[in-house]
Amino acid sequence: MADYNTSLSRVRFGEHVHTQVRRFIxxxxxxxxxxAVYAMFYTAQIVTWLILGSPIFTYYGSATxxxxxxxxxxxxxxxxxxxxxxxxxxxxxxxxxxxxVMEEDxxxxxxxxxxxxxxxxxxxxxVKVKNLxxxxxxxxxxxxxxxxxENSDSKQD
Length: 157
Hints:
This protein has one helix at residues 140-150; strands spanning 8-10, 16-18, 24-29, 33-38, 40-43, 46-49, 56-57, 74-79, 98-102, 114-116, 121-124, 133-135. By secondary structure, the protein is mainly beta.
């Protein structure tokens, strides 16, 4: 039985597991799965991931100022109608910002949203997903260039 006020669920044998919704940007399709990068960001009150293949992070609002984060592996992710922003104390990033077009009824990305190109995850096609948006077509070549730069052993057309 899940406790919907926390991110803990009780599973078989009475064990507890931590769960969370994640958003990704799909980068490369394979036969039974796709590679995606995290796209973690806050949307109002919840932490989520953009289902597209690369991850988007906010690092709890600190963006790339968080200790241990490598800024050169990140780009700003921002929603159509907004301007890309650095957070207080964040140095300019080498990778140019990437525009995300959110699907209708989805909240805009928060300013601390960052795409982490150096991490990619295989996601099986039987995983429950919701389409939250897509990389704007004018930014797709840049997005794939950055992914290829960080994943040189996985070239994507």
